[in-house]
């Protein structure tokens, strides 16, 4: 346990949002995958045809997501069901085990969509990557890792994914504490955030707000390529 952690009452919870294939951590992805809701028979058939919109809020079990996050925040070891993207169904007998941790990072396209869930996070990040990059990454991911047909992937992106991003995901950018342009390629910004998270853990929970403000001031300095939304109230979601 790092020095200063004795006074902490709960894990430091970090939320990471952003469009599909924007560069969000694949480690965090395992946490959110399990909260896709169980599809009905008709929904499953539509999913196999690429017609079910997994980027729409209706595709997520937000109650399960909140339950899992509250369990994590209580310091308990938490079981999260795994999701099979190839067959579009939740695996009832397989789980991701999240042990009690000092820091938990949760990633997903709509982690900030529900206000009662968004407010659980100590730090909210939005990964901002241009649409062309996200599309190319999604095509490679869905065809190579998830065994999907290229034509189906492109059709799903243009008819479902892109409109859903613009309507549901992009507006949550305004609730983020900070926005990271260029995603994982922005190593300077990421290293700066890591450094300040380490400060938070070292100095304890009582300095959380002070350290958050210090981070916001630092990332607003020229050259970091990262935007603190709290320092710029005029940021528009679109």
What does this structure look like?
With 238 residues, the protein is of the alpha/beta class. It has one domain: P-loop containing nucleotide triphosphate hydrolases (Rossmann fold, 3-Layer(aba) Sandwich). It contains eight helices and seven strands. The protein has helices at 26-33, 41-48, 62-73, 115-118, 131-145, 150-169, 187-203, 208-219, and strands spanning 12-18, 78-84, 89-98, 103-107, 123-128, 178-181, 227-228. The strands form two sheets. Strands 4-1-5-6-7 form a five-stranded mixed sheet. Strand 2 and strand 3 form a beta hairpin. Helix 5 (131-145) packs across helix 6. The chain is globular, with a radius of gyration of 18 Å. The model is unreliable at 1-8, 26-37, 217-225 and 229-238 (pLDDT under 50).
Summarize the structure.
With 238 residues, this protein is of the alpha/beta class.
């Amino acid at each position: 346990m790092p020095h200063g952690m004795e006074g902490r009452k709960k894990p430091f919870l970090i939320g990471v949002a952003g469009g599909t294939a924007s560069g969000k951590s694949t480690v965090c992805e395992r946490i959110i995958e399990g909260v896709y809701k169980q599809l009905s028979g008709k929904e499953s058939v539509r999913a196999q045809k690429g017609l079910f919109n997994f980027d729409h809020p209706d595709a997520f079990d937000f109650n399960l997501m909140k339950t899992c996050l509250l369990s994590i925040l209580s310091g308990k070891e938490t079981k999260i069901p795994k999701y099979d993207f190839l067959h579009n169904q939740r695996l009832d007998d397989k789980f991701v085990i999240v042990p009690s941790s000092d820091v938990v990072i949760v990633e997903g396209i709509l982690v900030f969509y529900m206000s009662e869930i968004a407010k659980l996070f100590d730090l909210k990040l939005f990964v901002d990557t241009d649409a062309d990059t996200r599309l190319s990454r999604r095509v490679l991911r869905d065809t190579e890792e998830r065994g999907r047909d290229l034509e189906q992937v492109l059709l799903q992106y243009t008819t479902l994914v892109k409109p859903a991003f613009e309507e549901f995901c992009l507006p949550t950018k305004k609730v983020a504490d900070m926005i990271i342009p260029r995603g994982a390629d922005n190593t300077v910004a990421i290293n700066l955030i890591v450094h300040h998270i380490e400060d938070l853990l070292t100095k304890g929970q009582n300095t959380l707000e002070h350290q958050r403000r210090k981070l916001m001031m630092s990332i607003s300095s020229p050259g970091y390529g990262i935007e603190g939304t709290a320092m710029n109230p005029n940021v528009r979601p679109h």
